[in-house]
Amino acid sequence: MTTGAATARKVETMILRGGKPLEGEVALRGAKNALPKIMVASLLTGEKCTLRNVSQIVDVAIVSDMIRALGGEVREVEPGVLEMCAADLQPMEREVLREFSGKSRIPILTCGPLLARFGAAPVPSLGGCRIGTRPVDFHIRALEDLGATLHDEMHDAYLTCERLQGNKIRLEYPSVGATEQVILAAVRAEGVTELSNAAMEPEIMDLIMVLQKMGAIISVDVDRVITIVGVRSLRGFDHTAMPDRLEAASWACAAIATNGRIFVRNAKQFHMMTFLNRYRQIGGDFRVMNEGIEFWRAGERLRSTALETDVHPGFTTDYQQPFVIALTQAEGISIVHETVYEQRFGYVEALNRMGAKIQLYRECLGGLRCRFGQRNYKHSAVIVGPTPLHGAEIEIPDLRAGFSYVIAALAAEGASTLTNTGLIERGYENLMEKLKGLGAEIVE
Ligand code: EPU
Fold first, then answer.
1. Would you state the pLDDT for residue 97?
2. 103 C-beta closer than 6 A to ligand 1
3. 291 and 421 share one domain
4. Has residue 263 been placed in a domain?
5. Distance (Å, rounded) from C-alpha 109 to C-alpha 184?
């Protein structure tokens, strides 16, 4: 498993010949947006922590390397099972931080655990996908609300505290990362923290379940309020990570875009209900089984729709790009209003080169109050379909867009050359093998 070297085994170019339906089965493992955060939670204790259902993805490798660089242990004891122990954790050195910041969004989440254990934490600059400015102001403000002091020396920021103190915190926007930041910091703070306007993504619930196993006291109310009663210490955990609902949705879109049929083993209906409703509305069909969900087209044609991305339980932004590929094959005019990231339509230009008819607008084409409407970002898309797609040469800009180009290339006539495909491995395990298993034609 690539937990040792964050940059190992990257396939950078892929040539795909499209026009054939994808048919067969793929299996999901642990969610990309849950696993690394659960690994960070292991830093909150000196006891052994066991994490199961771990996927072979780059973000897991990066966090494994980061924990080791902090003096912790990470061992793969059997395929897909990691044992972690942070008994000998060391304060974060700036050099260590520099090595990992820029590669991933995860290092910022170490602030809470490091403040709890050492009273000091450097603030990393962040990596991750290029889909907007992605600032960390909510994270820092929330940590300050919990009693941390921010020091900024020559652009090297760090936080200090005696012991974090529980507080009432309201997030300006239900940010996933900032919600996780508050939870990871407040579990060992003194007193009670009440976080309102929190994100409620299933991956956050998975993290909360881990923390509860560790001895934390966290309650989740229906109105986006999460209450955390701080405890002095936490113990180890044994946890099986939730399956990757975003990967499941990606394969579901691949099934209808190529007019194929894909069984996604381990996909869970409960995590994907909003997606499944939309999928059915545009002419996709599915069968939910105990072992997973099977996806295909209900009839010959797909139908257009109007949708807005939103925080959970809305239509998650990470479903957006693969769904748009399916919409290029739907009859009529579809509208997609992206309300989570200001620049998540960068991938459209290459799709149009492949034959899609997508026009971007600065206006909010939808009813949701959105932060980008008055700020000159092209964050609404109008998609006219169905349009036959043809092969093209495309450089992949980010993870979800990358997988979407794979779907588009497989739905297109002729060959497409995709470069920078290593980015897809941030979140999709064994991509080549899975594609081959579904009958995709990959030119070696
Ligand atoms: N935001 C701020 N300030 C902050 C934090 C966030 O303005 O301090 C803004 C962001 O710029 C963005 C919005 O709030 O416009 C939402 O960002 P959020 O914090 O929710 O995103 P994140 O935690 O950085 C995670 C996932 C993303 C996913 C988003 C939204 C991980 C590692 N990443 O990012 O996943 O899109 O939540 O659900 O969990 C992906 O999987 O492809 C991916 C990008």
1. 79
2. no
3. yes
4. yes
5. 8
